[in-house]
């Protein structure tokens, strides 16, 4: 059984969403993609109406949600008038919420297949790039794998989410396909040398194992096996040392992030009331980083989500951003989730928060689309469907 023709363009665009991350240097790709997504969402919704599929009653909340997005965009527009900014930056910040609205508005039960396909593409396509030099970058003396991403952390982060999404597709059962995908992703994460994402990937593995009913001892055993295989693969591809965990040299351990954090904290001590409320502009932390670079420090933006939000758009902008995510979660996680699906949203949020400890996530779609995709999958499970709908697949 194939999905309705009207849904196919939307399903295809969702499936290839991770591949658009490869075009981070081409600004037009983001705008063309969102325009295509708008058109495909309207086409898919029209097809659902023609088929007589009842509208999801929870879609009524999407209109108030859309107003929140518009107000948040206007908030950033106002900040840009006084402190500088760009349409591109504002668009990137609101893009995950726009993506959620469009897909949630017109998505059906076939959406989980598109999400699973996106997860597989992320893992497999990046793995296929291992033999090519452009997929690698030198971080000091360490050669690290970045795939088609600009940063190695983006790759490892996307891989962790991809395994979580595909596990959701398999109803959190460890099938041969999921086990193979986990193994390939584990090797890539180790090769990426993104140390924080070792923890992120481990969180996903433990969650899947717990859902499968595997004991804690077995989880540790299999984690060590996967980790050992990943390290062996890393040493085979790269004879140089891996990034270490040198706690004696905090600057080396944080790769210079501590310098930026210290200067940001000093700057915040001199904030006026208006600065605390509205921040100093969307590029304020980048400007500070460039000043530090002239002093010999290597840094780029705040490298911490909370510091970035408060420093650039103030407490009001930060609270607005939190409200949008809370609203997104509430529209995604209903009361009728089956037992196997429960906890996936919490794990996804954990990965998102962990990433925000050492990186700015709100300004980069590569950091936000994975979380949105998990929420869309959760919404699909809890969406009301006609029980006798012959076009609806039995999976998810």
Q: Any overview of this molecule?
A:
- This protein is mostly helical.
- The protein is built from 16 helices and two strands.
- It has a two-stranded antiparallel sheet with strand order 1-2.
- α6 packs parallel to α8 (195-212), α6 (152-169) packs parallel to α16 (365-382) and α8 packs antiparallel against α15 (344-358).
- The model is unreliable at 384-396 (pLDDT under 50).
Tag the structure with descriptive keywords.
mainly alpha; about 400 residues; disordered C terminus; 16 helices
Summarize the structure.
By secondary structure, the protein is an all-alpha fold. It contains 16 helices and two strands.
Largest sheet, spatial ordering of strands: 1-2
Structural class designation: mainly alpha
- Give the tally of β-strands: 2
Q: Tell me about the largest β-sheet.
A: 2 strands, antiparallel
SSE ordering: HHHHHEEHHHHHHHHHHH
Helix content: 55-70%
Average pLDDT confidence is: 84
